[in-house]
């Protein structure tokens, strides 16, 4: 067939970056590098790649790689390092209990890595203190899906983007953050509405741009729900499968929505009329929705409109959460978050816990939620966490209140960091640093935003002494006394155990079902959607895992986005050619050409009032930290608003480490931090 593991001698794999999950064909050059092309047969991208994916070959060199285990900054053998990690974790647990240790993992993990880490922490150590940087990415979508459907499921497929007549992109700069999906949107020819406080590149190409006031998303979408009811646009047949419809009665009026969002009644009427009269609507949402103190309510306000009108699970219809990271979805499936069990089962449900423990034949099972990302690092700061293992991520840069997080990590008596890089801001804080294999060197699977599982395949040898993450964790599990449970010999065996485990999801009425893949040919596995063998689109029949779908009709809460000392609202996000803290994209000279240095967007009127010159240096400060960057004076942001990218790193405020400014304020339902709107002040450093 078209999707064999190799393609003319080259290797088929999946892109290392975003949740689109594009298929990539890698042809090694024999000197440690590779030529990269889009896979014409992969159903996520059909041969397309964006700038980041195309430049993957430039990021493969071994400069700066961590190649041997380090203990106290000194090279050590694997045996010595692993024994030390196992001993210190075992001793800490014996002395202070299982909740005194924690893992912080990553949406860059492959599903197999995630599965093994979760199994060790929840089933064998017996704590749920494992959380992931995906908490910063899509935790609000997970919580919203669970409230509305009873399970964390994206109902639609990428093909819906081509089949829709109207696509609403809300809180999503798709053209830069998920470029291949944006190309698919353009290929489909649907009308496009962009809802974003900022005039992004995505908004430039849209038919309508609604520059709503930051924090007013719930009002906008609840207003649409009220409008749909007012116009009699409810699907009465589908309504039999949905509860909570009465909530629409409390939807805000048009005047109230206009007051909250700052949009004109005319703009609102035009958007509501378009949504209402178009049958095939996909509402795509991303970090602008998720990364907020009311992120879960925002998600549900969007899902409400699709549930009320039955615009779900049909061709060209549905709500669509696009995930930031390559395997945020896979991590959710195997329970790699502090509030979930594997296989979409619930920590709070005794029958679920018993089933998971039975499957693993494990000595323990976590019976309460663990520490979510922001709380996890606070527990490091106040001494509750005494041994911490950070894997495949750089929280000293990427977490809110990054300066405090750095201090918190320093405060933990024993810190292990597994990474591919020798010198990230987080690796520098490690007592033990463990060299992991990276993209192109390891085997495993990832799940993209449309529930499609694809293989990542090794096409380069593991450099130095680097080891796959799942194997490092399993080696520690064995040394802690659980040799049989962690005795896999390859990633395929881990995947096989995981597919068998999904029989539990099916038994408890969940959609996630991979059992048809049990015993499959892992090497040859073609991309496949779950439920494997089931329908591609879900819930058009109204069969929701919770019974009836649920309309939440949330109300808009208070959004403290400014105060007297900090009169500006800072929004954050990605640029087109960099990824997260640039540990990979920073290696490519070509990618750094697009935008070479950090910047902050300031409205011309604000710049004039504060004496900020175009390209002049400014200092931005919040109650938690400060950064310096070059001003980009532009009307892409509204007055009173600023925008800065998240990627740049560094030790001090003289660099633009934006997450040092972000307050660790979280959504109370999902635990996701509000990275998109914080109160700051801005000053010219060198006045014009
Ligand atoms: Fe990679 Fe995402 Fe670009 Fe596709 S769209 S090539 S998955 S970064």
From TrEMBL:
One of its GO terms (biological process) is cellular respiration. Its cofactor is Mo-bis(molybdopterin guanine dinucleotide); [4Fe-4S] cluster. The keyword Metal-binding applies. One of its GO terms (molecular function) is 4 iron, 4 sulfur cluster binding. GO terms for cellular component: membrane; oxidoreductase complex. Residues 8-64 form the 4Fe-4S Mo/W bis-MGD-type domain. Keywords: 4Fe-4S, Iron, Iron-sulfur, Metal-binding, Molybdenum, Nitrate assimilation, Oxidoreductase. Belongs to the prokaryotic molybdopterin-containing oxidoreductase family. NasA/NapA/NarB subfamily. This is Molybdopterin-dependent oxidoreductase. The lineage of its organism: Bacteria, Pseudomonadati, Pseudomonadota, Alphaproteobacteria, Rhodobacterales. The chain holds residues 59 to 746 of 921 of the full protein.
């Amino acid at each position: 067939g078209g999707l064999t593991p190799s393609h003319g001698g080259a290797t088929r794999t999946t892109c290392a970056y975003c949740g689109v999950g594009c298929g990539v064909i890698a042809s090694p050059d024999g000197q440690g590098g590779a030529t990269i092309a889009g896979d014409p047969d992969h159903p996520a991208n059909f041969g397309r790649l964006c700038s980041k994916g195309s430049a993957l070959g430039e990021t493969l060199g071994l400069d700066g790689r961590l190649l041997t285990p380090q203990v106290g900054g000194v090279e050590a053998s694997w045996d010595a390092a692993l024994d030390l990690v196992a001993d210190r974790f075992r001793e800490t647990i014996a002395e202070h209990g299982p909740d005194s240790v924690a893992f912080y993992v990553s949406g860059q993990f492959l599903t197999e890595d995630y599965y093994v880490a979760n199994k060790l922490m929840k089933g064998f150590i017996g704590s749920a203190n494992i959380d992931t940087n995906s908490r910063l990415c899509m935790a609000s979508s997970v919580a919203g899906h669970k409230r509305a459907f009873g399970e964390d499921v994206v109902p639609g497929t990428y093909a819906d983007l081509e089949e829709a007549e109207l696509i609403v992109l809300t809180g999503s700069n798709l053209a830069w953050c998920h470029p291949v999906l944006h190309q698919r949107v353009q290929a489909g020819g649907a009308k496009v509405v962009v809802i974003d406080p900022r005039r992004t590149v995505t908004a430039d190409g849209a038919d309508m741009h609604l520059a709503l006031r930051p924090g007013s998303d719930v009002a906008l979408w609840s207003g649409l729900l009220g409008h749909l009811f007012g116009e009699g646009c409810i699907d009465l047949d589908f309504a039999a499968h949905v509860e909570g419809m009465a909530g629409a009665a409390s939807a805000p009026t048009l005047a109230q929505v206009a007051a909250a969002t700052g949009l004109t009644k005319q703009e609102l009427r035009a958007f509501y009329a378009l949504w209402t009269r178009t049958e095939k609507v996909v509402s795509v949402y991303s970090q602008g929705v998720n990364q907020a103190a009311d992120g879960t309510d925002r998600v549900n306000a969007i899902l409400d409109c699709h549930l009320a009108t039955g615009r779900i699970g049909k061709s060209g219809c549905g709500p669509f959460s696009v995930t930031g990271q390559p395997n945020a979805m896979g991590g959710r499936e195997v329970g790699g978050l502090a509030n979930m069990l594997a296989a979409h089962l619930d920590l709070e449900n005794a029958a679920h816990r018993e089933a998971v423990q039975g499957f693993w034949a494990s000595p323990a099972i976590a019976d309460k939620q663990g520490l979510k990302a922001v709380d996890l690092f606070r527990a490091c700061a106040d001494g509750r966490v005494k041994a911490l293992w950070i894997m495949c991520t750089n929280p000293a840069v990427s977490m809110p209140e990054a300066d405090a997080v750095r201090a918190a990590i320093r405060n933990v008596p024993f810190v292990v960091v597994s990474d591919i890089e020798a010198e990230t801001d987080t690796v520098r804080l490690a007592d033990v640093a463990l060299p992991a294999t990276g993209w192109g060197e390891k085997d495993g699977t990832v799940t993209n935003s449309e529930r499609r599982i694809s293989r990542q395949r090794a096409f380069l040898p593991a450099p130095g002494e680097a080891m796959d993450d799942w194997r490092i964790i399993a080696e520690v599990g064995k040394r802690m006394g659980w040799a049989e449970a962690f005795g896999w010999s390859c990633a395929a065996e881990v995947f096989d155990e995981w597919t068998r485990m999904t029989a539990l999801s099916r038994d408890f009425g969940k959609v996630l079902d991979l059992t048809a893949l049990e015993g499959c040919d892992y090497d040859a596995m073609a991309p496949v959607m779950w439920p494997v063998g089931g329908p591609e689109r879900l819930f058009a029949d109204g069969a929701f895992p919770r019974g009836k779908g649920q309309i939440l009709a949330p109300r808009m809460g208070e959004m403290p986005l400014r105060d007297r000392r900090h009169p500006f609202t800072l929004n954050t996000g990605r640029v087109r050619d960099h990824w997260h803290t640039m540990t990979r994209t920073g290696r490519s000279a070509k990618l750094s050409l697009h935008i070479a240095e950090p910047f902050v967007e300031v409205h011309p009127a604000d710049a004039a009032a504060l004496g900020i010159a175009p390209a002049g240096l400014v200092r931005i400060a919040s109650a938690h930290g400060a950064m310096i960057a070059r001003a980009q004076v532009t009307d892409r942001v509204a007055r009173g608003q600023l925008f800065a990218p998240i990627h740049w790193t560094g030790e001090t405020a003289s660099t633009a480490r934006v997450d040092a400014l972000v307050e660790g304020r979280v959504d109370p339902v999902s635990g996701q931090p509000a990275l998109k709107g914080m109160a700051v002040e801005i000053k010219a450093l060198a006045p014009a």
